[in-house]
Amino acid sequence: MIERVLVPIDDSEMALRALRYALEVHPEAEITAYHVVGEPSGMMAEATRLALAEDIRAEAEELGAEVAAAADDMADEYDRTVTTEVAVGHPVGQILAAAEEFDAVVIGTHGGSLADRLFVGNVAEKVVRQSPVPVTVVR
């Protein structure tokens, strides 16, 4: 029985579809919406913002607040609550590390900007290939 589901989420439509799917298919499970803010680098806007911040963790939480609010709004539609967590680092590595504490992962097929997909690669594909738990990919 699946009791804990990890849903990696960003501000993309596909991530919200994955969250909706998890809420519908796993009505009794504890759902965690997991937002990973990229490591500081010159490549992406969020990461650059982190690189300039005095308190990286506080800045990451602020960046994740909008995503968390969207997750909470969707959970309200189902009269449910979701736990939201924000991590800093490489999305694939952070998702795989977090997945070890869950029974399943539900992830959107893609998300983020074109630059994210070009520089980071297909996060969903890498998670499917390396996850320690079953993964459902939502389109």
From TrEMBL:
PANTHER family: STRESS RESPONSE PROTEIN NHAX, UNIVERSAL STRESS PROTEIN. This is Nucleotide-binding universal stress protein, UspA family. It comes from the Archaea. Belongs to the universal stress protein A family. It comes from Halovenus aranensis. InterPro entries: Rossmann-like_a/b/a_fold, Universal_stress_UspA, UspA. Pfam families: Usp. Residues 1-139 form the UspA domain.
